[in-house]
Design a protein that fits this description.
This protein has 95 residues and is mainly alpha-helical. It has one domain. The strands form 2 sheets. Strands 1-2 form a two-stranded antiparallel sheet. It has a two-stranded parallel ribbon with strand order 3-4. Strand 1 and strand 2 form a beta hairpin. 21% of the residues are buried. The mean pLDDT is 91.
Length: 95
Amino acid sequence: MRAVCLSSATEGTKLDLATVGANARRATEDSTAVAYLEAPDPRAARFTHPILETAEIPWIASSSGKAAMANLLRLIEASGSDSLRQSIRDDLNQP
């Protein structure tokens, strides 16, 4: 298992929508991706969630990267499904 850190989509309070979309699309292009960790920003979520939903990639929003990763690792450990991605989506109650 490996984590891939993507480019920050914010600079101060400014949100770069091109980077937001590029990051979400990069996750969809990785067949081994089991989740997408993001900062809780409704402006970004409006663009990333539809992209992630299409690829059935769950997301975890947290202001703490450490907390988000701990949550993801807990979900992976508790997974009982053949599909890790689907198990995480189910546990997070995402469409």
